[in-house]
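Exercise: predict the fold of this chain.
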Amino acid sequence: MLLHPETMLVLAHDRRRELIAEADQQRLLHSARLSRLARRARTTSPVRGQPA
């Protein structure tokens, strides 16, 4: 399989952009989960009779 060097470069750059976008999405989802957990933990009241 013989590909033009520019084609290989374009494919490599596309793949790199995909990986960066995927990492950004994972970071965004992770921070959203953490903020939801923190908000949920802040709004729940401690159980009566249990040490804080």
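Check your answer against the key: Helices lie at 5-43.
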